[in-house]
DNA sequence: TTGAATGCAAACGCTTTGCACTCGG
DNA sequence: CCGAGTGCAAAGCGTTTGCATTCAA
């Protein structure tokens, strides 16, 4: 499942926010610092959750993150994963999205962007923000402003031209 | 909550599908016929659910529909409302959408279209399809085709220019 | 009549919460 | 040390399901 359609941008917080030892530091320490910078106590569990989700631009469910942590032999409770994800989302470190009624997925890419949604696998892929532009856009209801604009392109495998 | 942003199109099945007595028939009978045409036994409960949802272009949750039926003194079980909505959606008479992780809403407008989503009230408003056009659109993953393209514009009340 | 649809309540899956225990600063 | 964070299990909430009863054709 290589993401050749993933966004090109880096999901990291802006580099200026981490003026200290940044160059040779392993990911885990960088994550811990990010958590700290956002007012979160970088506990072992939180760092693991954030590390898995934020290591690269991905979309994961709480269950997937839980599974991945436990696969490594570590112990985390389901509640902690959910609570951690909620706090990370509140603090703006990750983004919660819900294109599927069954479950939420968490997106490590925090800048607003659009998604391909594979209807068969449920998989999500980022769309490069530069690949979408509007030539016509509706007037907004009076007194309101657009917080975000999200485009979802639901994909289905192309029907091989059957001899109909 | 007048929908000046509602789509202009009619959500009915195509008129040619109903060659019989159509002109003077009250809504309830029209609904019953539509159900029948789609292979659904038009029971009292189903007609009520469909009638409420399809009377005009709206977006309603299962709970809202249940409440509206019961407000009129009629008896329907929650399960029947959910089951009916599921069948209506399967048969293409309504459309299930989920922009909110908490609940599904059912949309009486079945042609693909876009939505304003009021982040404060949770309310949805249709966007006229003619009010949205793309000037740039991403290349789709190989072998895939776009089943639908959905744009969601999440709205927030404009911040009155406070004297900050 | 008779299979399909309904109603109720129990089951379900995802997420949150209450509370005692533990850990990080 | 001490409050924030964790873990477990129980509770919540929207939705589905099992089964006996009822209804539409």
Beta-strand percentage of chain A? 15-25%
Q: Quickly give the structural class of chain A.
A: alpha+beta
Q: What is the end-to-end distance of chain A?
A: 32 Å
The CATH topology annotation of the largest domain in chain A reads as Arc Repressor Mutant, subunit A
Helical stretch tally of chain A: 4
Secondary-structure element order of chain A, as H and E?
HHEHHEEEEEE
CATH top level assignment of the largest domain in chain A: Mainly Alpha
Residue windows where pLDDT falls under 50 for at least 5 positions of chain A: 1-25
Adjacency order of strands in the biggest sheet of chain A = 1-3-2
Number of strands of chain A: 7
**What's the oligomerization state?**
homodimer
Largest interface: A-B, 44 and 43 residues
Q: Helicity level of chain A, as a percent range?
A: 25-40%
- What is the residue-averaged pLDDT of chain A? 83
- According to CATH, the homologous superfamily of the largest domain in chain A is Winged helix-like DNA-binding domain superfamily/Winged helix DNA-binding domain
Radius of gyration of chain A: 18 Å
Number of domains of chain A: 2
Choose one word for the global shape of chain A.
Answer: globular
Main beta sheet strand tally, sense and closure of chain A: 3 strands, antiparallel
In CATH, the architecture of the largest domain in chain A is: Orthogonal Bundle
Subunit structure (chains A, B): Homodimer.
Subcellular location (chains A, B): Cytoplasm
Main location (chains A, B): cytoplasm
Protein name (chains A, B): Ferric uptake regulation protein
């Amino acid at each position: 499942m290589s993401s050749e359609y993933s966004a090109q941008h880096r999901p990291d917080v802006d580099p200026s926010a981490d003026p200290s030892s940044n160059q040779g530091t392993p990911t885990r320490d960088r994550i811990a610092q990010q958590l700290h910078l956002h007012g979160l106590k970088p506990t072992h569990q939180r760092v693991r959750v954030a590390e898995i989700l934020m290591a690269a631009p991905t979309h994961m469910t709480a269950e997937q993150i839980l599974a991945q942590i436990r696969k490594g032999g570590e112990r985390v409770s389901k509640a902690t994963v959910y609570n951690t994800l909620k706090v990370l989302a509140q603090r703006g470190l990750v983004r919660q999205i819900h294109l599927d009624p069954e479950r939420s997925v968490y997106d490590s890419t925090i800048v607003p962007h659009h998604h391909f949604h594979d209807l068969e696998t449920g998989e999500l892929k980022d769309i490069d923000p530069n690949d979408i532009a509007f030539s016509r856009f509706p007037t907004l209801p009076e007194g309101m402003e657009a917080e975000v604009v999200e485009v979802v392109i639901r994909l289905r495998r192309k029907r091989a031209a059957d001899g109909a």
